[in-house]
């Protein structure tokens, strides 16, 4: 397992003509570009750690946003990070994706057997390029990995998986909000990430579209077996999707809760309601 410690100074690497990720994708037969498209789901190996936080803290001036976080996440696990506004959950995601650095502690990220960068992020806003058609927007996720006919073929393949193959030559402006988020999901997945970080990507959708997108995300995650880290305010969404829910309160982990329920899960079921209640008690209990 190749890892990188984000709080350690690394010597600048000499640029290579072809990255390990690009080489791996080039050498992979087309039928295996997206393991969730045709082959059977791969087995998860929970002995592998996708990422590990050890004593991670993040301060902005005198304000401590994350305080001494310890967290190990096995490869292939779906975790949800939940908490009140300003609790530090989005900061945790930014640290994981390399958009920010910890003030102290060590963050170790599994970068895959070839050492390539395979962490992708999906935001609440689709952030599509308005001047590029749908297929070209998805190809942005292959920058530095594939181009030309190869990138086009991979873009169309993943658009088919999210149900938008017939919209490849349309402009983002003609799509609905849910369809734009499907394009953003396709762009995040097209390079076959090892870790997919999701920063409240469904928060702006209407209730029915949100449930539809939850089912789509869960289905692709089950088949591709990437590690998913979902930041959300929605307790029901967290327990419906995640294997494990992390509750952050005042910059610390207040609850680390396994969700040992079979899939698919039914919204509003008593088992989900019981787990939702436990999370809500942690956030809004009598001692708060």
CATH architecture: 3-Layer(aba) Sandwich
The number of distinct helices, counting runs of at least 4 residues, comes to 8
- What would the principal axes of the Cα set say about the shape? globular
Report the structural category.
Answer: alpha/beta
Strand content: 15-25%
Query: Average pLDDT value?
Result: 83
CATH names the topology as Rossmann fold
Helix content: 25-40%
Q: Give me the side-by-side strand order of the main sheet.
A: 6-7-8-4-9-10
Please state the CA-atom Rg, rounded to the nearest Å.
19 Å
Main sheet summary: 6 strands, mixed
> What is the total number of structural domains?
1
Spell out the CATH superfamily. P-loop containing nucleotide triphosphate hydrolases
Distance between the termini: 41 Å
Characterization of this structure:
The chain has 288 residues and is of the alpha/beta class. It has a single domain (21-284), classed as Rossmann fold (3-Layer(aba) Sandwich), CATH 3.40.50. The chain contains eight helices and ten strands. Strand 7 (195-199), helix 6 (207-224) and strand 8 form a beta-alpha-beta unit. Helix 4 (148-161) crosses helix 5 (177-189), helix 5 runs parallel beside helix 6 and helix 7 crosses helix 8 (270-284).
């Amino acid at each position: 397992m190749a890892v990188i410690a984000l709080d350690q100074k690394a010597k600048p690497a000499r640029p290579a003509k072809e990255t390990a990720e690009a080489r791996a994708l080039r050498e992979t037969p087309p039928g295996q570009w997206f393991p969730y498209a045709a082959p059977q789901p791969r087995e998860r190996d929970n002995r592998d750690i996708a990422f590990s936080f050890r004593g991670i803290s993040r301060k902005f001036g005198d304000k401590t946003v994350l305080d001494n976080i310890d967290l190990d996440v096995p490869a292939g696990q779906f975790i949800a990070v939940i908490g009140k506004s300003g609790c530090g959950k989005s900061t945790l995601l930014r640290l994981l994706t390399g958009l920010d650095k910890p003030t102290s502690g060590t963050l170790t990220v599994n970068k895959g057997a070839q050492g390539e960068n395979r962490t992708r992020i999906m935001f609440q806003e689709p952030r599509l390029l308005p001047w590029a058609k749908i297929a070209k927007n998805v190809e942005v996720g292959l920058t530095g990995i594939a181009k030309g006919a190869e990138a086009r073929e991979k873009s169309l393949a993943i658009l088919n998986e999210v149900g938008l193959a017939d919209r490849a030559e349309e402009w983002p402006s003609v799509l609905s909000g849910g369809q734009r988020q499907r394009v953003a999901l396709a762009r995040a997945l097209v390079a076959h990430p090892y870790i997919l970080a999701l920063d409240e990507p469904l928060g702006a959708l209407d209730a029915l579209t949100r449930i539809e997108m939850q089912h789509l995300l869960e289905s692709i995650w089950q088949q591709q077996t990437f590690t998913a880290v979902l930041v959300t305010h929605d307790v029901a969404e967290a327990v419906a999707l995640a294997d494990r829910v992390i509750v952050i309160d005042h910059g610390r982990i207040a609850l680390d809760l396994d969700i040992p329920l079979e899939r698919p899960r039914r919204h509003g079921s008593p088992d989900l309601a019981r787990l939702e209640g436990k999370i809500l008690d942690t956030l809004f209990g009598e001692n708060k």
